[in-house]
């Protein structure tokens, strides 16, 4: 029982991190109706900015306080992501208003390749370290209940709590604010939203900025765990089954989908993997997503689209 609980808790914490990355996909889709293939590149670009700024700022400004360095680096990286959102809105999205979804889809692919290349040019291609002070020591719970207790990684726990707080805040933003309602209106119909006075370009700038913030937090957390390297962009691939499972239009779906994928991966690897030689964790999420596409294509919380002719 102790082994099961340990695996379950680990899966839940990993699932929250998946949800954080998936949230970026949902945000862009809700505002533009297109799948954002650039989300992984945004996570990488934001993490590179954070890692390099935390090294550059102390040298340029002449101080050695690591906390101040991380704060300034985070603010600087966020400013960079807002600037990226502005450039994307001005040079790409504003030219594609009311165009077919395939045009927007191809635009996000172009943005992804540009951010990958520009990030390497601007920040370099080495493996960088992000140290934001998350504790890395393990802790043991319920030692009096289970032999040896339940092993819990403090870094994973803090990261999951940060991700949960951000996901909850963005959920409230979408549901309770006028800007959040405007974002949902824009996603439903660009022309109708414009006809009632919703400024489409401003809404797109806001949502790409928010998605950039989510990418920055995800990049900092994953960069702290894995190091900032160009394979970090592949973390977004793990979020694809999450949005398929939860639904592309649902913020709560991204949360539930992430938890299901995280728990399913860990449990299947620990309890089923030994019978199949291991490796289940690498494909479990995609197999589950495929099953959902066959049974419920819109996901658990996605909106079912019915076209009447």
3D architecture notes:
With 309 residues, the protein is mostly helical. It has one domain (2-229). The protein has helices at 2-32, 39-61, 66-91, 101-123, 154-176, 178-188, 190-195, 200-226, 235-246, 251-276, 280-295; strands spanning 138-141, 150-153. It has a two-stranded antiparallel sheet with strand order 1-2. α2 (39-61) crosses α8 and α5 (154-176) crosses α6. The longest helix is centred in the first third of the chain and has 31 residues, at 2-32. It is globular. The mean pLDDT is 82.
Task: Give a brief rundown of this model.
The protein is mostly helical and 309 residues long. It is built from eleven helices and two strands. It has one domain (2-229).
Keywords:
2 strands, single chain, about 300 residues, mainly alpha, two-stranded antiparallel sheet
Shape label: globular
Helix content: over 70%
What amount of the residues lies in strands? under 5%
Largest sheet data? 2 strands, antiparallel
CA distance, first residue to last residue:
55 Å
Supply the number of structural domains: 1
